[in-house]
Amino acid sequence: MAPVPISPIKVGHIDDVQELRKSGPATIPERFVRDMTERPTLDTAPPSTNTVPVIDFSRLVKGNKEEHKSEMLELTRACEEWGFFQVINHGIDLGLLKSIEKVAKDFFMLPLGEKQKHQMLPGTVQGYGQAFVFSEDQKLDWCNMLALGLEPHFIRVPELWPTEPLKFSETVEIYSGEVRKLCQHLLQYIAMTLNLRADFFEEMFGVAVQAIRMNYYPPCARPDLVLGLSPHSDGSALTVLQQGKGSPGGLQILKDSKWVPVQPVPDAFVINIGDTLEVLTNGKYKSVEHRAVTDREKDRLSIVTFYAPSYETELGPIPELVDENNPCKYRTYNHGEYSKHYVTSKLQGKKTLEFAKVESKIATS
Ligand code: OGA
Ligand code: NI
């Protein structure tokens, strides 16, 4: 999510999805129609019992010994087997969740001209528009995005911050502060599941990089042909996703080569392990590929926070997690370099992580 200024590139005409819906609700321009192999399988089956684990955060923090222990085991299982989990009783004021959703929704409902004052420039990843588009023939996602770098302050681009709704910036600041604390706490528990000191990641990360992306998925007359968001893994250490209240499901994760829907749990956050933790844990905890599908009738909002080490951090497998049974899978690299590589590549499954593989053939300079 680094705001990397890069030279102008040709991305062709990018339709604004909300405007498309208004002018021709049944029209799906060719650029949104996925090739057969990419088209989504939609969730028509009854919910499977094999779903993303749910972690009760309050039991981690203030449960009795037994509760804490069993929740830690569940967290370990979630990180090892799923790379995804939902957190309930996270302690963040539910009123704040409601407020961030309101300012996000109000922003997306503004007239296009108003939103375009904060337009994402081609090849960059901050502002309003479609990120990760780098060519004229690349398929587009059925989604409008607003992405903003938050911390440290030098990654902020103030002109991209909406001035409407009035409470937008204030709400984002308060929300981000709370989510930052949640990330720090979760990383402490995750460190403990790895037999590391609780403050291991905090110390290593320095002043962590934090960004927010609000994704608005309008309904789509042909959800079978399009994707809301292309398959990808996140470049972060941890990602925290809030789904709009009453929004239909839409997030799917690739588990054992099958796309599994993440059923929304009211007031919960969906957390996932990003590429950075996969590398640090030498693949013990995986950054799982995921995507979003659209709904025929309902719109969907998600508010996503990315939490990552400072750009100066040197990353590589933690020595304690490498031994003869777990040989070193990733090289050591600079996180800023990885971020730059991530934001200048299109979303394509876990391809960006090739960068970090020991046998990587991608040039790093
Ligand atoms: C993301 C993401 C999924 C969703 O923004 O990185 O994976 O459901 N979003 O919006
Ligand atoms: Ni993601």
Question: Would you kindly provide a written description of the structure presented here, covering whatever features stand out?
Answer:
The structure is a single chain. The radius of gyration is 20 Å and the shape is globular. The relative contact order is 0.17. It has 365 residues and is an alpha+beta fold. Helix 4 (94-108) packs across helix 6. Strand 8 (251-255) and strand 9 (258-261) form a beta hairpin. It has helices spanning 17-23, 57-62, 65-82, 94-108, 112-115, 168-193, 200-205, 275-280, 335-343; strands spanning 54-56, 84-88, 127-129, 144-151, 209-217, 229-232, 238-243, 251-255, 258-261, 269-273, 290-292, 300-308, 314-315, 333-334. Nickel (II) ion binds next to loops. Belongs to the iron/ascorbate-dependent oxidoreductase family. This is Fe2OG dioxygenase domain-containing protein. It comes from Salix udensis.
Supply database-style keywords:
single chain, 365 residues, alpha+beta, eight-stranded mixed sheet, four-stranded antiparallel sheet, 27% helix, 19% strand, globular, binds N-oxalylglycine, binds nickel (II) ion
